[in-house]
Amino acid sequence: MSTYHPLTESEAIQVARSLTNIFESEGELVSREIGDGNLNLVFHVSQPSTGLSLIVKQALPYAKVVGESWPLTLDRARIESEALIIEERFAPGLVPKVYHTDNELALTIMEDLSNHVIMRQGLIEGGFYPKFAEDISDFLARTLFFTSDLGMNQQEKKLLVRSFANPELCKITEDLIFDHPYVDADTNSFDAHLREDANKLWADSELHLEVAILREKFLTHAQALLHGDLHTGSIFITPESTKIIDPEFAYFGPMGFDIGAVLANLLLHYASQEHWSPNATARDERRKYLIQSVREIWVLFESKFRALWDEHGIDRIAKTAGYQDYYLRNLLQDTIGFTGAKMVRRIVGLAHVADIDRIPEPAVRAKAQRLSLEIGTKLIKRNRQSTSIEQLIDIADSASKV
Amino acid sequence: MSTYHPLTESEAIQVARSLTNIFESEGELVSREIGDGNLNLVFHVSQPSTGLSLIVKQALPYAKVVGESWPLTLDRARIESEALIIEERFAPGLVPKVYHTDNELALTIMEDLSNHVIMRQGLIEGGFYPKFAEDISDFLARTLFFTSDLGMNQQEKKLLVRSFANPELCKITEDLIFDHPYVDADTNSFDAHLREDANKLWADSELHLEVAILREKFLTHAQALLHGDLHTGSIFITPESTKIIDPEFAYFGPMGFDIGAVLANLLLHYASQEHWSPNATARDERRKYLIQSVREIWVLFESKFRALWDEHGIDRIAKTAGYQDYYLRNLLQDTIGFTGAKMVRRIVGLAHVADIDRIPEPAVRAKAQRLSLEIGTKLIKRNRQSTSIEQLIDIADSASKV
């Protein structure tokens, strides 16, 4: 079993039983592969007699996107598993528990969360998640603070930076978020009606400079251990519970990249409301809820991050007068910039979001797409001048009123 | 021989003969330990019959500074050796050639440069080095550019970042440069007549904020492979040749840290001229020479770095309009800030410079020390507002005229 090969369903049962003590010894196990087969095998292994279950996730040695297939390191399974363990340590209860890791098989056996829904789908179905802003701001504040030089011994952090070198998955981000959307790249994919919008994007040199600067931060600013792919498809949710999954893109980068991923995906959903909330009053409500979520996430994040800093700052220098304000101002600016970059790539780049792509009427879809581009590009262009989350909200608000 | 132990002189001869083919097989070898015994053994191994020679440098498992001794990783020998090889690749002829590396014995066998002098000593003795600005700007521009995301494939760079994780030696810098000088720390060491100046330093909250920001860059901004300790004691020189030695502090950090180290040490020497150039006219000449060196180093560095960028920029994004100017402006600001930090620590921190410490008359020494503090603190405070190297020069000029 120990040499790498994609597991069969019966092998998944075998590892689930032999490598964990989740199941009672009696009682048959059932396995069902529930992954989309693009990157990973995901086996749901359960014991009908007891109702117990778990997930066996195995990385595949390739990625398939839109028909293409390219080799992809199995080391991402180790990274995902180690990231989950660190996230659980600093933000307990907000990630699936890891029961077992096998780096040779590129395998993580973990808590089954199938009583949750993927947040993107939940939002599309009109779900309200009153606990989300609280939970995600906890997750962000705690994982980012405690893996940064502010909250972790600086030498211990350097060893973690080394262990989370993740060149292959970072390359995907560098290409698909910071490069291809701003040029006529083969990987781009967008509706024909967006051709002129794309041309504008590709010719916008003010925008390109800001994207180059954001990319430089992604490449060099080893601020904290990021999740690295924190969109609403990486969040399992119920009204009472939030679980962050799939940190295979984890590496040490700029904090604002993770915060921005969350805000961007809420704003992409916001931009799609003409379809998902056809009733004008309901749409207004829905938009207010989403904007309020964006605001609360930042405001809660900031206050929690500051509280952690005051209470758990690792050294004398963290207490330097003015340093915290300087740091948070830069972090807000990064957040706003990365929010924008994460929106733009979902409209013209390779990977889209269901919130928008599933809008059937082309005219309505086009409005959502243009609104996303409008908000995204403005956020990118204004990030370095921003001083308050209200400026991000104003941009989203006023764009949607045009 | 392969288990680590400090070599004897006869073992140094043995490794020099068996691990390199520098010497002719006949002809006795002579070994002389010429290190200061604080961090490393340095054996000069020569063959009198042929005039051939080389250096066997071995790391010791401890550091001794001012009587104290603490354990220090032998891995720094690997780092030094790998850094020398990379520097030779990108800046050929400006570092000693590495003949052999043995990580187990923490050993580097390399080119003998004893026909050069240590630049700090050369400057103290009144040496002029007409080729220095050209050589050091070459070294800086080439090593920094080609190990950054601008000049090196970004995925290859990430693997190098991992290999140059250097927590123990970075810790020395973090403590001795960015922390201890700004607080009444046990490791600090300064003349009694500087007590009031030190008190001022420790109470200067504007300064402390800027130092905290510079430290954050040192901790997180993995911009390029730095030498990490590029003072004039790490430079072997003659009027015709420059060789950069001792990169055991190498790691991926902010480029301005290396450039600032060079400028700071020239300015510390500048601040000591009342003693070393007692004749007023000669002193004026000497100061002009030093200031002109500072200016030329930056100006040449900038033009070479921009030329490398234009010619060897690794990707489309490097060519984004405005990006190079943005990058160079930040780099100048970092350089000015780190120059200041490198000056202040040499006056009140643990490790001093001979340029100043060897001034026998306390009043003259005190003037040099206060001038260094004056220039250093101003550079730190003004770094983020700077737009030209002339602003650094004005600060040095006007401080020395008071």
From TrEMBL, chains A, B:
It comes from the Bacteria. Keywords: Amino-acid biosynthesis, ATP-binding, Kinase, Methionine biosynthesis, Nucleotide-binding, Transferase. Pathway: Amino-acid biosynthesis; L-methionine biosynthesis via salvage pathway; S-methyl-5-thio-alpha-D-ribose 1-phosphate from S-methyl-5'-thioadenosine (hydrolase route): step 2/2. Its EC number is 2.7.1.100. Residues 32-265 form the Aminoglycoside phosphotransferase domain. InterPro entries: Aminoglycoside_PTrfase (IPR002575), Kinase-like_dom_sf (IPR011009), Methylthioribose_kinase (IPR009212). Substrate binds at D229, R345. SUPFAM superfamilies: Protein kinase-like (PK-like). One of its GO terms (biological process) is L-methionine salvage from methylthioadenosine. Catalyzes the phosphorylation of methylthioribose into methylthioribose-1-phosphate. Homodimer. PANTHER family: METHYLTHIORIBOSE KINASE. This is Methylthioribose kinase. The gene is mtnK.
